[in-house]
Each structure stands twice: as structure tokens, then as C-alpha cells.
Amino acid sequence: MQQRRKSVFASAPFAMKQAALGAGVAARRNGAPLSLAAVVFALFVFATFLYNEDIKSITDFQFAAVRAKAPDLHLLQEAQAAAHAAVDTLARRGEEVIVRVMDAAAAANNTTTTANVIVDMGQEEKDRDVTMPTVSAGAGADEARRREDEEAAEKAASARAAAATAALRTVVSVPETCDLYRGGWVYDEVNAPVYKEAECEFLTEQVTCMRNGRRDDSYQKWRWQPKDCDLPSFDARLLLERLRNKRLMFVGDSLNRNQWESMVCLVQSVIPKGEKTLTKFVNGGNSNVFYAHGYNATVEFYWAPFLVESNSDNPKVHSVPDRIIQWHSIAKHAKNWVGVDYLVFNTYIWWLNTLDMKVLKGSSFDEGSTEYVEVDRPVAYKEVLKTWAKWVDRNIDPNRTAVFFMGMSPNHITPEAWGNQGGIKCAMETLPITNRSASLDVGTDWRLYAGAQEVLPTLRRVPVHFVDITALSELRKDAHTSVHTLRQGKLLTPEQQADPKTYADCIHWCLPGLPDTWNQFLYARIASSPWPADATDQTASKQQ
Ligand SMILES: *[C@@H]1O[C@H](CO)[C@@H](O)[C@H](O)[C@H]1NC(C)=O
Ligand SMILES: *[C@@H]1O[C@H](CO)[C@@H](O)[C@H](O)[C@H]1NC(C)=O
Ligand SMILES: *[C@@H]1O[C@H](CO)[C@@H](O)[C@H](O)[C@H]1NC(C)=O
Ligand SMILES: *[C@@H]1O[C@H](CO)[C@@H](O)[C@H](O)[C@H]1NC(C)=O
Ligand SMILES: *[C@@H]1O[C@H](CO)[C@@H](O)[C@H](O)[C@H]1NC(C)=O
């Protein structure tokens, strides 16, 4: 056994690391797995049943996707079968529920509904007779009747919109007392990954490890199981409903970009083609913006690797060996964060290059200052977080915006740390670390973690949710992109892939993969918060 490295981080809060250790693992209570083909049309039905078990009425299902083209009979049949199954389940529980699956073409142009209808499978003719207005009372009544019909249709449309939205306005249950970050990794081919690599067109080549030649895909199949509760399964529709008319923004370095990409993939699967757009390098080059048209929702990434201003703020041209920060200047970035509804910050990896941080002496790069002082890394880190915290506390409206701070994403560069003598960085690793001894030391600078723990509670107005991913991610030596990635914009050549010592990236993560779990923590917090009391009316009226 390797002698334990005498770490400079000996004072690290090992209690925190132990949080992830020795967790018992509960079997998960899962919903029945869905047939993929049925999902396209039936997911809406299912999602409603799975996540709002008490729902007693479901209105019509309109599908933007089917609006464009003729209904696929096979899909429709599957959808009907799925709906039948769902109904049977509820019926067995004695619930009074009748579900209606309409012919897709008719559904696409139907403007009438009743809030609680819902009978019939495919009896369009009979149904039409029933809802047709009864015989007219004379020729003069035609105009009045037409107006009545219009009004009724309008009312019905808004009722339907409200009901459909209400069905998604669920509050996911996550016990406040449950520490989501304490638990273990469970191999689970049924529930992981949440999406498929080939099914997310927005993934960059940097993270598509399978396409880039990785052979084993087991890294995609580990699910995080908290010890004392379940992490809610990710439901893209519920999250998008939360994001309706809102902005979610990740701010930070390339690890946060990694997580942003994951979030885009997590939500995009339920948005039809043509109703989603990804725009890169907008806003002076610092922002990537994913836009979900139908929801008027964005999932954005903003490049600011130190959060404060630095000479590394150009997202494309930033391989600066001499990293210099301005630890009290944040406004230039922060003005882009104002009014965003969900803010997710991180900063860590850029601090690791040197033990000391270079801090600009003059007032700004713009004024040509170049002189700097060198400051001990944890001291500078804490000072930067204080600058950030002060800005957040002064400029964020906690009634509008939820703020998250991501724990540090660990690297896996020292295989001796997990007992793999002779290993090369994270290359060829296919399993998480299972041997969880308290002395696991993959080189994380826990002093920065401690700094964050000190600064975050000092905010007075704005609560910040700390997303404690570090210890649980330390176990995932198998999940990095390693040699299945790019270097300077180009896929590694076979020769480079054969030389992991030089080329393996043991910092970033494959997708699907670990960052999906980080986003599930965000999801758990966002989807479990109460809806504002007045939001129903607002949403319903905005939809028209
Ligand atoms: C929907 O129905 C209305 C009449 O009820 C008709 O005017 C309209 O063209 C239809 N739209 C489509 C897309 O079929
Ligand atoms: C429209 O919806 C109503 C109520 O759900 C139904 O009675 C009617 O048959 C539908 N019309 C068409 C064309 O599907
Ligand atoms: C669309 O979203 C933006 C950003 O959240 C918001 O400011 C705007 O009011 C929304 N538009 C509508 C029509 O609700
Ligand atoms: C947030 O809203 C509550 C209730 O409406 C109000 O009392 C409180 O002052 C608000 N807080 C801030 C910081 O605006
Ligand atoms: C367990 O981990 C330690 C380092 O934390 C390592 O030295 C040891 O060899 C590992 N044991 C096994 C069986 O892998």
C-alpha cells in the first residue's frame, strides 16, 4: 500500500469527505420503464401520472410535434395503449379517471375542451355529435350563436392551458432534512443515463466519449443514491415549466460549461425540433444561450473562470500562462447576471496552476496595469468569494432569483491515490473508486472548499445553496473524457490517444455522465421549492 501522501491540505475538512463514505444503499422505487417509441407521444400522459398521482383530470393533449405532419398510426396506437395502461393503474387504485387520447390530427386543431371530460378512445364521430351545439333557434340566432361559440372556445382554451400547466406545477418531494450528498454510486442500467449521447444534438465533440472511441459505456450507468432519501428522477417537463419565461444561467469556468451542456441535453429531449436554438459566443463572446421557444426559457452559460475580472476572460483566447486576477472587480461580468432567475456559480480549476495567485496591483487591465502581487491561493480565493458575495447580496433579489454555488469538481491525475500503482492519470479507468477509505486523496485543494464554507453563510439577504459535489465526484475516476476528447479543437489522433501521459484530460467529464448528477441536485432543489401563490394566473394568462 502506498504511503499516504503528507498533504499540505492536512487541515482539510475530512468530515466533509466522509459525508460520502460508507453509505448504505437503498433499493430504488421506480416507475415502470417506458417503451421508447411510445414516449414521443405518450410522455405527456405518463409524466402527468407519474408525478402527480393525485391528478384526477387531464385535458386534451396537443402536440406541437404532430401538428406539423400527419399522425403516425403506430405511435398513436402505442400512445393509446400507454394511456390505457395508465388508466388501469389508477382504476385499480379506485381513482375516478378517464383518459382521452384524441386522434392526433384532430387534436392538433381542436379549440374546445371541458375541464374534466375525458371519455372515449377513438369515437370521434359520436363525440362530435355530443359537443356540437344543439339545433339553432332560428336564422337570426346564427350570429349570436357564433359569438357564443367563440367566447366558449376562448374560455375553454384558457381553461385547457391552465389545466395542462397545473398538471406540471407539481412540487417534487425532497425531504429538507435529507443530505442529498451523502450516499453511494449504484450501477443502474434502467435509470441511467437520463439521455443518450446520440440523441443530444447539442453535445460538443469535447464530451462525446463514445463517439470519440471509448469502448465501455459503464460510466454512464452509475446513479447517485442518497442514503436517507431518493434523488427525484429528472423530469424535463417539470423543470421547463419552472423555467417558463425565465432564465437559468451557469457562470464560471469550463467545468460549469460542462454542466451547462449536460443541462441543455437534459431539457432538450422533450422539445420538438425547430423549437429550440443554441447560440454560441454571444454577448461579446462570453455567453452561450440555449433557448426553448415554446417556454420562452433560456439555459445559458457565461464565461468568467475566476468570477472576478481577470486576464483570462476571453472564452476563446485564454491560454494565458500568467493568470492575473482583479480580486475586487466584478461589475463588468456581474452586470450580465442581473435579473436572471436561477444563477449557478463555480470557480476552482483555474486556481490550481500555481500555488500563489497573481493579483493585479493597478486598478484595471484597461488602464494598462501589469504589476501584480502574489497571494497565497486560499487567501486570494476567499477574497474573491467575498467580492462575489458582496455583489450577490447587494444586487440579487432573493424573491426572484435562486442562487447556487457549485462545490469543486475534482481531478484524477494521481492513480496511486486509489491504489492503481503504475496507472497513468485517469486513463483506462472504468470503475468508480469503491475502496472508500478516509484517506482518499486525489489532490483536491480542500482549503478552497473550506473558504467557500466560510464565505457562503456570510451573505445576509440572499441564501446561497451550496451544491456539495466534491466528495462524491472524487469517486468517479472512471468518468473523465481522458483520451476521448479534443485538443486545441481537434479530436486526438490514435497516436495521441495512445499517449495518455501527455494527452489524457482528467479534468472534464464525458456526457452523458457525472455532470448529469450535479444537475439532478439542482433539479431537486428547484423542483421542490414551492410555487409562488400567484403564479397560476400569471402563467395561464401568459400562455394565451
Ligand atoms: C383549424 O380549424 C379552423 C376552423 O375551426 C380553420 O379555420 C383552421 O384553418 C384550422 N387550422 C388548421 C391548422 O387546420
Ligand atoms: C374537440 O374537443 C372536444 C372536447 O374535448 C371534443 O368533444 C371534440 O370532438 C373535439 N373535436 C375534434 C375535431 O376532435
Ligand atoms: C420571456 O422571457 C424573458 C426572460 O425571462 C422575460 O423577460 C419576458 O418577459 C418573457 N416574455 C414573455 C412574453 O413572457
Ligand atoms: C420578499 O417578499 C416578501 C413578501 O412579499 C417581503 O416581505 C420581503 O421584503 C421581500 N424581500 C426582499 C428582499 O425584497
Ligand atoms: C484502497 O485505497 C488505498 C488508498 O486510499 C490504497 O492504498 C489501497 O491499495 C486500496 N486498496 C485496494 C484493495 O484497492
Automatic annotation (TrEMBL):
Membrane topology, as annotated: Single-pass type II membrane protein
Region (Disordered): 132-154
Gene name linked to the record: gb19513
Family: Belongs to the PC-esterase family. TBL subfamily.
PANTHER family given in the database record: PROTEIN TRICHOME BIREFRINGENCE-LIKE 9-RELATED, XYLAN O-ACETYLTRANSFERASE 6
Superkingdom of the source species: Eukaryota
Subcellular location, principal: Golgi
Protein name: Trichome birefringence-like N-terminal domain-containing protein
Pfam families per UniProt: PC-Esterase, PMR5N
